[in-house]
What we know:
Chain A has helices at about 55-65, 85-95, 110-120, 125-140, 155-170, 185-205, 215-220, 240, 245-255, 255-265, 270; strands spanning about 20-25, 30-40, 45-50, 70-75, 80, 95-100, 175-180, 205-210, 225-230, 230-235. By secondary structure, chain A is an alpha/beta fold. Chain A has a domain at about 1-85 and about 205-275: Rossmann fold (3-Layer(aba) Sandwich), CATH 3.40.50.300. In chain A, helix 3 runs parallel beside helix 5 and helix 6 (about 185-205) packs parallel to helix 7. Chain B folds into two domains: about 5-90, STAS domain (Transcription Regulator spoIIAA); about 145-365, no CATH class. Chain B has 13 helices and six strands. In chain B, helix 6 (about 160-185) packs parallel to helix 9 (about 245-285) and helix 7 (about 190-230) packs antiparallel against helix 13. The relative contact order of chain B is 0.09. Chains A and B meet through helix 4 of A and helix 1, helix 2 and helix 3 of B.
Amino acid sequence: MADLHPPPPCPPGTEPLVAVRGIVNSFGAQVVHDGLDMDVMPGEIFGIVGGSGSGKSVLLNTILGLRTPQAGQVRLEGRDLTKLGPAELRAVKRRYGVTFQHGALFTAFTVAENVKLPIAESLALPEDVLDGLAHQKIRLVGLPAEAAHKYPSQLSGGMVKRAALARALALDPPLLFLDEPTAGLDPIAASAFDELLLYLQRSLRLTVVMITHDLDTIYRTCNRIGVIVDRRMISDTLENIVQNPHPWIQEYFHGERGRVLEQALRPSAVAHRAPSGTGAASAGDGVR
Amino acid sequence: MFLEVTHRDGERELRPRGHWRAEHAPQLAREVDEFQPGAGRIVLDAAQLESLDLTGAFFLRRLERRLAVEGVEVRWASPRPEPLEFESGVVGDELPAPRPENPHPPIGQVGRWAVERGLEARGAIAFLGSVCLVFAGAVARPKRFRAASIVRHVYETGLQAVPIVALIAFLISVIIAYIGAQQLRQYGGEIFVVDLVTLAVLRELGVLLTAIIVAGRSGSAFAAEIGVMRLNDEVDALRAIGLNVVEVLVLPRIVGLVIALPMLTIVADAMGLAGGAVLSFLLLDIPFNQFLARMQEAIMPTTFWAGLLKAPVFAFVIALIGTYRGMQVRESSRELGRLTTVAVVQSIFMVIFVNAIFAVAYWQLDF
């Protein structure tokens, strides 16, 4: 397998795939977002960063159309989500896949049934085709074929994240939203997940929007970063954002943990680390 | 049409065309499965293929595999499309893992069932035992009763249930009085409607109906609350902090319900008698003071207590079953639903069963 890098920047003038304009979200007197803007270009891995309680998950729910903002608009592929009817919204929702922070697998279903659910709900297909497609997605995220008939409670944390990714990819969406995909994973499993993501992103030409706190993941995978500070978003390429003078951003990237990583990874260390196999579950992903 | 067959130079050419994407999967499945390969060589050409995603690649590979199984020699005129190469690289020729079969023969399943029931019975007895132990410990050191928690459960299971219990008790006794009035009128014994209503409500119906409503309301709530706490690892967190789960979660619910259910029963008794009195007045022209006087004659000093005595026993049974089933929840949301259902069904059954035991005992004791 070739070396995996964050995707290259988009040529200027490209129409953004996700365009968020002037979002206002508040809970009672507490204003979370106040005129937040965000652009995600096709083919990029966009990382959303922010302190606890800065409204990362609220922003994600707003973009997904699960929450209506008090003001502002969200355009996915040019369509304004805040103005769509239920049927159109359903069609838009088929264009993206989501993984939630804790996996959110349906605990009453096996992994295969979890992956089949979105496919069977939107497409009338015979059972053996559904089985085949589920098998494909399960193998794609690096789970062993036998994992198909396991229940979520029988999986390790890393396997749950992979199974959630398989379900998110079920309908081959061009756009993927990930909420803390590597949180709670050990460094080996997290690193394997980063590589899997880069590999899938390149092979399937996905656009990925990812909420993460994992500096390692940010340096490995993201080509642009949006930081939520002061209820708005500052977004730029990784190289530029680390130079941003905002004190929170400075503390985030150049604090004790950031400095260590910076030295270890930049500028070329990423390319030298041998990628481990993405086609099979890594050592850290054993069945519990 | 996603598949096009042409003949050229004595060779058959098969051209996938258009968008082989997830949204067209049903039609792709149909065309690939209905394609008749026949005999002889086939040349595959992807020149007309406008787009291909992984679902499309799945169907292309399915087509290739069908052709191979039928013994058709296949050659690609164009390079194999990139998503197909990628898909084949990931999945290869591996087939979906078969669903694991149930490894136990029928006779083995009977044995398994029996062993599981035995273990469950042991678990239930152990649970009862630990409740008793914790209760004994709490009697020795009353601080362990957790007054705030008990008050909350008395409020939720008792006070909040007053309107529904009152309404149902009223309506049921109206029905009893109505049926009694119809039958007794034939013998001119309308006044005995008062006896019927009074005895039925005070001895049996008041407490039984209240217990059944509470089993549906609070038995399910106990099982669901504790069940969700188990799914969230909250129960393990309590244990890790060093708290006794039975003391924190189970005992306050049992004590709370044992306090609340008798009080609800008194409300139900009062409303039931009121219902009987109202119906007697409207249908049989028995004035309220006559109803009261007749009621005094109908009951013995023990009648009210015969009903009320059952309430704490029913409360104990309902709370014990609800909390026990909640504690059994593990792993999935389906288990939560199943065990909540079990909690309600079992506690209603047990309430009726215990009521039958009381009836026999009262008969023997002439109570």
